[in-house]
Design brief:
Distance between the termini: 15 Å
Order of helices and strands: HHHHHHHHHHHH
Shape: elongated
Radius of gyration: 24 Å
Low-confidence stretches: 112-118, 234-241
Strand content: under 5%
Number of helices: 12
Mean pLDDT: 84
Length: 241
């Protein structure tokens, strides 16, 4: 999983894990409220149905947190992915145990329980990426605030014609890669239209019409927002993305 900025939850859980291993066993209790929504999401994906904190699967998730804190090694990758794997495996063990108690064959478990045996590591990584993407969008909304641009406006303000879209994307890269233009944008919080028109020879009407799109695209590149980079592609390819 490639991220320009660490996922906050990942960072917080790693810090709690470090505290736990320096003797602060309250660290697990402190991280529970922040961590449980992720754990319940893993449970729901694994079991193929909605799981809340009152379900037995949620109790398994809580015990899995303790197990993961005991056995996690930073060399094993992201702690959230590792925790998700532990939760999934314990749920599989639980379902198999239940099956044995009821003397049922695996094929008699039904479609909902059968999902347990098809939740792979990449599905857990995808969940972590979804959280990272949501975090990045929230950060981008904050970045856009001083420019008086709303995130939901970007779709309607983007160019629809392919040729125009490529030109505006090129402008974004020109601004982001030029120290003078970048400084102007960030300090004055507006598009350096005069410089772009006179020195870079871009069309004034196009700059005015797609101002919000160009500002937003430039900021995505400047702040290296990984998940939003698909919003802006380099002219003629994806070399800079």
């Amino acid at each position: 999983m490639s991220r320009a900025e660490p996922l906050k939850l990942e960072t917080d859980v790693c810090e709690s894990w470090q505290k736990y291993h320096t003797g602060n066993h309250d660290a697990i209790e402190e991280i529970y409220p922040e961590l449980m929504p992720f754990c319940l999401k893993v449970c729901s994906r694994t079991c193929g149905r909605y799981i809340d904190e009152s379900d037995e699967e949620a109790s398994i998730a809580r015990m899995s947190i303790l197990e993961a804190f005991h056995s996690y090694d930073p060399d094993k990758g992201y702690i959230l992915v590792y925790l998700g794997r532990v939760i999934r495996n314990r749920l599989i063990d639980f379902k198999r145990s239940e099956k044995r108690k009821k003397s049922l064959f695996l094929e008699d478990l039904g479609p909902k329980n059968d999902v347990v045996f098809h939740t792979e590591d990449d599905a857990i990584e995808k969940m972590v990426e979804e959280l990272a993407r949501a975090q990045e969008i929230e950060r981008f909304k904050e970045i856009l605030g001083p420019f008086d641009i709303k995130f939901h406006e970007l779709v309607s303000s983007s160019p629809k014609q392919g040729k125009t879209r490529e030109i505006t994307k090129k402008i974004c890269w020109v601004i982001a890669m030029d120290e003078v233009l970048q400084t102007y944008l960030l300090e004055k919080r507006k598009l350096p239209i005069k410089i772009l028109e006179e020195k870079k020879k871009f069309n004034r009407k196009l700059l005015d019409r797609y101002r919000k799109y160009i500002i937003a695209g430039s900021l995505i590149i400047i702040y290296d927002l990984t998940y939003l980079k698909s919003f802006i592609w380099a002219q003629g390819g994806t070399d800079h993305v």
